[in-house]
Design a protein that fits this description.
β1 (about 5-10) and β2 form a beta hairpin. The chain has a six-stranded mixed β-sheet with strand order 8-7-6-9-11-10, sandwiched between helices. Strands 3-2-1-4-5 form a five-stranded mixed β-sheet, sandwiched between helices. The chain is α/β, with parallel strands linked by helices. The chain contains 17 helices and 14 strands.
Length: about 500
């Protein structure tokens, strides 16, 4: 697969392009994102679904612009997919031929199940610990649902419910009295097995709703991906947006004004039908799914009658994270550093007295893997650089709580954590006992790792941690260790092996 790949998603409402760069076999990051609101499906739904010349011309110009951007960014591969408006249109083949001739891009028109699968594939791999959920991906022409059970995609369906479709058929023509029946007929196509406590919200309309909820609640982290909320608690707020006269009051961006209400109608109906409790926001969807299907070399050609999706499921290797690996690759992390090794041994050795839940060990080890990354920017304030890079680079596969904990530990760097400095994110961090112990273990591991040629053993007796070495060269580590903020229960003792 090419080092840089551009994926273009030609939707009913917008054309979007994402440029991905691979840093290793599975490590990657997003270089750039581009969007043009062309409305390929505009005036099609009231004209026998035929793509209109003005809309096709705007789409052609947007695609030409995206191709030029992709080539300037040195993309070796450009993948273009078309969704609802294209697959519905009787003149789709003519438009595809036109783009191939005039722009030099080959558009692959994907069916509804494939579109649903790709969104589910992206969510499953790039959100945090998804085991059981149903995705809702609301687009301009259709809405896709993907059922995930026990960490695998089980089923996919596509509904003719889209924001632009509803706008043109019902809102623009003042036929709102027929809207409810249209939606109810669509809901009858959703099998009961799709009902789920956890709903993954995909698509621009649902991201806009999540952004509004985040700002209303003064959420402490400006990160839409993996943001979750209770549907019952926020249902009233979404209904207010649906009926609002002034959307600015709800922090809705202007480019969403003309379709956000339709998005609310679709989402509220589906969420109630699926008996949703927890909504998880996904910033990834079809584009990321296309990239991953190429990355995993799973070219899923899903037919409309497909019921077995198991052979198309693909995941990253166990205990692998693409964002963490990408940071390590890009900033030449020294894999011979023993910080992670010592952090693992120290956590286990000290478990009888720190009694920190074993689930936090993973966060500790991930922080240890990035313990020196800030030094790649500048030795001075390296811990702050590390914290910033973790906060802004661990985008995929980490929950907000995990990202903030890792960033907080890296920034503290063994110093006592100031409660006032973390007051604004306190609700997303573990308690002070856990923070103190993880901070101490990480800082101690990092200091001990400076002497990379020394083998160390750790033994806990009562409340004393004995650190045994086979050499006398840990003098400098001992001096620096004295500066680490220690929990009250622990005493350190250094001994040389006989």
């Amino acid at each position: 697969m090419a080092k840089k790949t551009a994926v273009i998603d030609l939707g009913s409402n917008s054309v979007r392009m994402v440029v991905f760069e691979r840093t290793s076999r599975y490590g990657f990051f997003i270089c750039s994102e581009h969007k043009k609101k062309v409305r390929l499906g505009e005036n099609a739904y009231n004209n026998n679904k035929i793509l209109q010349e003005e809309a096709m011309l705007k789409a052609e110009k947007a695609l030409a612009y995206f191709k030029e951007k992709a080539l300037k960014e040195k993309c070796r591969k450009i993948i273009t997919v078309g969704t609802s408006a294209l697959r519905d249109a009787p003149n789709a083949k003519d438009f595809i031929t036109r783009i191939a001739k005039n722009v030099g891009l080959n558009i692959k028109c994907i069916n509804g199940k494939t579109e649903s699968f790709l969104g589910g594939l992206a969510a499953l791999n790039l959100l945090s610990n998804i085991q059981n959920a149903t995705t809702i991906d609301i687009g301009g022409g259709s809405t896709e649902l993907c059922l995930i059970k026990e960490g695998k995609i089980i089923d996919c369906i596509s509904l003719d419910l889209g924001t632009v479709r509803l706008k043109e058929i019902f809102y623009d023509t003042k036929r709102l009295n027929a809207l409810d029946q249209f939606i109810q007929e669509a809901l009858m196509q959703v099998p009961k097995r799709f009902q789920n406590d956890n709903i993954i919200a995909i698509g621009g309309s649902l991201r806009a709703l999540s952004n509004s909820i985040m700002k209303k609640n003064s959420y402490p982290l400006k990160m839409i991906h993996n943001f979750s909320y209770s549907f019952e608690k926020e249902k009233n707020h979404i209904e207010k947006i649906q009926n609002a006269k002034n959307l600015v009051d709800f922090n809705i961006k202007k480019d969403r004004f003309d379709t956000i209400k339709e998005g609310c109608v679709i989402f509220l109906a589906l969420a109630k039908n699926l008996k949703a409790k927890n909504i998880i926001t996904s910033a990834v969807g079809v584009r990321e799914g296309v990239f991953l299907s190429n990355l995993f070399q799973k070219y899923a050609k899903i037919k409309n009658d497909t019921t077995d999706f198991s052979k198309f499921n693909a995941k990253f290797p166990p205990n692998f994270n693409p964002s963490l690996k990408s940071l390590q690759d890009r900033f030449n992390i020294d894999y011979s550093d023993k910080s992670t090794y010592f952090a693992n041994k120290l956590f286990d050795t000290l478990l009888p007295i720190h009694k920190v839940d074993i689930n936090f060990k993973k966060d500790l080890l991930n922080a240890a893997k990035l313990a020196h990354i800030g030094e790649r920017i500048n030795f001075y304030f390296a811990n702050e650089h590390s914290a910033y890079m973790a906060l802004n680079g661990l985008h995929f596969g980490f929950s907000h709580k995990e990202i903030l904990l890792i960033s907080t530990l890296l920034k503290a760097n063994g110093k006592k954590i100031n409660p006032f400095a973390i007051e604004h994110i306190k609700e997303l961090l573990p308690n002070n006992h856990i923070l103190t112990w993880l901070n101490f273990i990480l800082a101690l591991a990092k200091k001990l790792a400076k002497d990379t040629d020394i083998n160390l053993d750790f033994i806990l007796k009562n409340h004393t941690l004995y650190i045994y070495s086979d050499k006398k060269q840990i003098y400098f580590s001992k001096e620096e260790i004295k500066k680490i903020s220690k929990p009250k229960l622990i005493i350190l003792a250094f001994n040389q092996k006989n």
